[in-house]
Amino acid sequence: MNQIVDETVDETGRQIAERIRLERDARGWSLAQLAERAGVSKATISKIEREEVSPTAVILVRLAAAFDLTLAGLLLRAEGDGSASRVSRAADQILWRDPATGYERRQVLARADHPLEIVQVALPARQTIVLPASSYVHIRQAVWVQVGELVIIEDGARQVLAAGDCLPFGPPSGVTFVNETELPCQYVVVLARS
Questions:
Q1: Half-sphere exposure of 135 toward its Cβ, with a 13 Å CA cutoff?
Q2: Taking the CA of residue 83 as centre, how many other CA atoms within 13 Å lie in the half-sphere pointing to its CB?
Q3: Distances from the Cα of 9 to the Cαs of 47, 56, 91, 93, 158, in angstroms?
Q4: What is the pTM of this model?
């Protein structure tokens, strides 16, 4: 079903693996049940949980959606959301890198007591990320390009965004993010839980 290309598991990868095991166990799901709900192979989930490989962004989004969480929610649970401070310090923000594409995701703001999340993304040159509709079920979001150019394909409609452009998303549908250029693209995603 899905392939994981990076076999390097860092500390964040270990925390993610443990969180996936905990979320699955808390629901009383077998590997097969989670695989069916997420659309990810049982073997892939097993390798992630055993810390043999790091999951890609697409796989993490599918697993989070199966748990009825946003990607940020899953990552926050993995890192432990114990901060009492309302200030989201740059040094404490979760930075995750997709081993398949080099896509980097910095969780700028996410709190259990606040409906808004802010994510900063760096998408390398000539890379594509495809996220399923299930990742947008309980959220509304807008993308604001900071550097470079980003192509967004949503429900068959193609939008080309340059630096400064912003696009809000409609009803949940599959979304493809593409950097068709030779330069990196950086954008901010603002999400509101519904």
A1: 23
A2: 18
A3: 11, 12, 21, 19, 35
A4: 0.71
Sheet holding 149-154, edge to edge: 128-131, 175-178, 149-154, 157-162
Q: What is the sign, positive or negative, of the torsion defined by CA atoms of 154, 159, 160, 164?
A: negative
Q: Residue 126: what pLDDT?
A: 98
The full length of the chain comes to: 194
Strand residue runs (E) in the chain: 94-97, 104-109, 116-123, 128-131, 139-147, 149-154, 157-162, 166-168, 175-178, 185-193
- The token duo for 122 is 């760096």
Identify the three-state secondary structure at position 147.
strand
Give the pairing type, strands 157-162 and 185-193. unpaired
In the chain, which stretches have pLDDT less than 70? 1-9, 80-84, 112-113, 194
* Per-residue pLDDT at 3: 37
What is the per-residue pLDDT for 9? 61
